[in-house]
Recover the amino acids of this structure.
């Protein structure tokens, strides 16, 4: 979240979002996504302009080992290319469970994973996936804010999302709900249901859905 006010500091200067994007090697939209989700701390000048401390940008770059950005979502990949599936879990155990369940698809998908929201946001910024599976409630990132911001960015316009949560439908509605392209499943989630969703999305993407042989 943006802080209400950032005062100038000659030792730790303020950057615009565009300047921060150039230093991190990512798009302006990616920086916006990170700021809205709280991954990159930002504040406002007295004039109301959003600014980011240079120290925060450098700390993010050092912790994450950021490289120049990979392309955002582009033309649809060929049918013989694996679908890029990003998993953002709340814990390492949850991530492992999802990975094991989706190994069922073999080479039909290319899995990327994060066991916390912070790392997941960095993964989203580096490359927009074909499919996103995420927990709605994470200790370090507001899942609702993340999904709302993603839905507003053209680079993620074709992204379909599966959100897993222990919250009731009423609790979700009270928080404003989730964007249209987000499917919600409630804990405890059967791994078969997780696979069914990925399988249906692969068909929508016109990707091959051959699965790994079962034992």
């Amino acid at each position: 979240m943006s802080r209400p006010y950032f005062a100038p500091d000659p030792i730790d200067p303020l950057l615009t979002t565009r300047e921060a994007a150039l230093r991190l090697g990512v798009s302006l939209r990616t920086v916006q996504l990170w700021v809205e989700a709280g991954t990159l701390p930002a504040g406002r000048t007295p004039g109301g302009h959003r600014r980011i401390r240079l120290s925060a940008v450098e700390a993010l770059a050092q912790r994450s080992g950021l490289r120049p950005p990979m392309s955002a979502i582009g033309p649809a990949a060929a049918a013989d290319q694996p679908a890029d599936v990003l998993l953002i879990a709340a814990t390492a155990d949850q991530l492992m469970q999802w990975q094991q369940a989706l190994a069922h698809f073999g080479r039909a998908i290319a899995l990327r994973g994060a066991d916390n929201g912070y790392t997941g946001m960095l993964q989203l910024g580096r490359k927009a996936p074909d499919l996103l599976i995420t927990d709605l409630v994470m200790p370090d990132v507001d899942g609702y804010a993340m999904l709302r911001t993603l839905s507003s960015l053209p680079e993620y316009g074709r992204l379909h999302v599966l959100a897993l949560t222990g919250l009731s439908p009423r609790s979700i509605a009270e928080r404003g709900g989730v964007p249209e392209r987000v499917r919600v499943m409630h804990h405890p989630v059967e791994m078969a249901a997780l696979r069914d969703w990925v399988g249906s999305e692969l068909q929508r993407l016109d990707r091959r859905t051959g699965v790994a042989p079962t034992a």
Q: What stands out?
A: The chain has two domains: 14-64, 83-204. The CA atoms of residues 172 and 178 lie 8 Å apart.
